[in-house]
């Protein structure tokens, strides 16, 4: 049983944000009381990947250091609509391979993608962290489910700021975009806030 995953950006044979991915894997092993870790750099080199283009290196692993790798061609998705979905008990503090709860939330929604609300606070989508635009600045919710590597990278570079985003203040933001290891910060790939089809005041958001 592979319990955890890492999805790593590989473009034109170069691997991105590997130090942050390695840190997360190390922290996962440490949290569950296991010594050692998996060397992601060594693993990538062993694949002898020699193709140009954008790929997702998907690494599934368990705490016994068993590993399964896939190199998957990747294209950034264009999403038609989003829906706020409330789930006050969902926990995704580690990058678990089991996504059943996420898929169940998506299936119950009426949109292509969901934005999970936990205790009245905006968190993440089903596959990414999220940024919101106010004026010319970009903010990310302080109430994330998973502290993604791209999120950490952009905060460190001071390209984005962290703030509290709730159902009460979400309409103060004009646009949003999705970020993860494969989806970079990109002003060309932004959505108007109205792309969320059940903003507070429009209709009730889903309580799952």
User: Quick check: average pLDDT?
Assistant: 94
Shape type: globular
Assembly level: single chain
Which spans of ≥5 residues are poorly predicted at pLDDT below 50? none
- Class computed from helices, strands and strand pairing: alpha+beta
Helical content (DSSP H or I, runs of 4+): 10-25%
Q: Give the strand order, joined by hyphens, for the main sheet.
A: 10-9-8-11-12
Radius of gyration: 17 Å
Overview of the molecule:
By secondary structure, this protein is α+β, with helices and mostly antiparallel strands. The chain is 18% helix and 31% strand. It is built from 4 helices and 13 strands. The strands form 3 sheets. Strands 10-9-8-11-12 form a 5-stranded mixed sheet. A 4-stranded antiparallel sheet has the order 2-1-3-4. The protein is globular.
Concise synopsis of the structure shown:
This protein has helices at residues 18-31, 40-46, 100-108, 149-156, and strands at 4-11, 14-15, 54-61, 67-73, 82-86, 113-118, 121-125, 129-134, 137-141, 161-163, 175-179, 191-192, 206-207. With 208 residues, the protein is an alpha+beta fold.
Furnish the topology, listing elements before pairings.
Layout: E1 4-11, E2 14-15, H1 18-31, H2 40-46, E3 54-61, E4 67-73, E5 82-86, H3 100-108, E6 113-118, E7 121-125, E8 129-134, E9 137-141, H4 149-156, E10 161-163, E11 175-179, E12 191-192, E13 206-207
Parallel strand pairs: 5-6, 5-13, 9-10
Antiparallel strand pairs: 1-2, 1-3, 3-4, 6-7, 8-9, 8-11, 11-12
């Amino acid at each position: 049983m592979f319990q955890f995953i890492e999805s790593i950006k590989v473009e034109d044979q170069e691997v991105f944000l590997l130090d942050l991915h390695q840190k997360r894997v190390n922290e996962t092993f440490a949290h569950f009381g296991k010594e050692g870790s998996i060397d992601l750099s060594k693993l990538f080199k062993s694949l002898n990947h020699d193709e140009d283009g954008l790929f997702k290196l998907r690494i599934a692993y368990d705490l016994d250091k068993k590993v399964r790798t896939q190199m998957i061609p990747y294209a950034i998705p264009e999403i038609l609509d989003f829906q706020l979905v409330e789930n006050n008990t969902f926990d995704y503090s580690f990058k678990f391979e089991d996504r059943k709860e996420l898929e169940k939330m998506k299936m119950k929604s009426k949109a292509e993608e969901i934005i999970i609300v936990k205790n009245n606070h905006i968190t993440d989508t089903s596959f990414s962290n999220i940024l919101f635009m106010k004026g010319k600045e970009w903010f990310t919710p302080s109430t994330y489910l998973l502290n993604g590597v791209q999120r950490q990278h952009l905060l460190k570079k001071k390209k984005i700021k962290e703030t509290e985003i709730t159902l009460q203040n979400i309409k103060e933001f004009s646009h949003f975009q999705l970020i993860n290891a494969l989806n970079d910060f990109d002003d060309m790939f932004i959505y108007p806030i109205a792309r969320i089809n059940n903003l507070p005041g429009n209709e009730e958001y889903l309580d799952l």
